């Protein structure tokens, strides 16, 4: 498909996800390079949803290492047991944080980040990467984000 994205800024959040997810699938179908697909996925999420920061951390070298992202510069390495990303890795489930200040051990890559959702991509029982989305507003993520981003992680899992 053409490398362009159409998501009407006036849509509701749920409608935006519904418009965006098939476009991310189309954009990545037929491309076998993992980094290329993840790069376009995070760019599409930033462009379509207007996220403050969105990116992935790969499970590699016994820690979580920064991969493709969109937004301000970020910490490059996170220990398995540290921060929201580490909690997502160790618990192998989505972690939704309405107020990062209230999350013990939260790693502040940017002082502008106020709320966060982190989701795992799991293959053969192992977390391959986590997708981290940050907002500069408190309480910005909910069950709608969780539902559609978890659907997206199924697509990511299919790339492994
Ligand atoms: N806040 C994350 C670290 C990654 S940055 O937000 C991009 C955490 O606590 O794991």
UniProtKB/TrEMBL annotation:
GAF domain location: 41-156
InterPro entries noted in UniProt: GAF, GAF-like_dom_sf, Phosphatase_reg/MetRdx
A GO CC term attached to the entry: cytosol
GO molecular function: L-methionine-(R)-S-oxide reductase activity
Database matches in Pfam families: GAF_2
Family stated for the protein in its record: Belongs to the free Met sulfoxide reductase family.
Name the record gives this protein: GAF domain-containing protein
């Amino acid at each position: 498909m053409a490398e362009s994205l159409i998501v009407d800024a006036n849509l509701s959040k749920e409608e935006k996800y519904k418009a965006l997810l098939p476009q991310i699938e189309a954009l990545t179908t037929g491309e076998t390079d993992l980094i290329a697909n993840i790069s376009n996925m995070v760019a599409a999420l930033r462009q379509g949803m207007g996220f403050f920061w969105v990116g992935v951390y790969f499970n590699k070298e016994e820690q979580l290492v920064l991969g493709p992202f969109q937004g301000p510069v970020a910490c490059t390495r996170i220990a398995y047991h540290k921060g929201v990303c580490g909690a997502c890795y160790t618990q192998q489930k989505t972690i939704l944080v309405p107020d990062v200040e209230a999350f013990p051990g939260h790693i502040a890559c940017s002082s502008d980040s106020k709320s966060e959702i982190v989701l795992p991509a799991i293959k053969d029982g192992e977390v391959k990467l986590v997708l981290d989305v940050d907002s500069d507003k408190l309480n910005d993520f909910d069950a709608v984000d969780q539902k559609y981003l978890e659907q997206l992680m199924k697509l990511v899992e299919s790339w492994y």
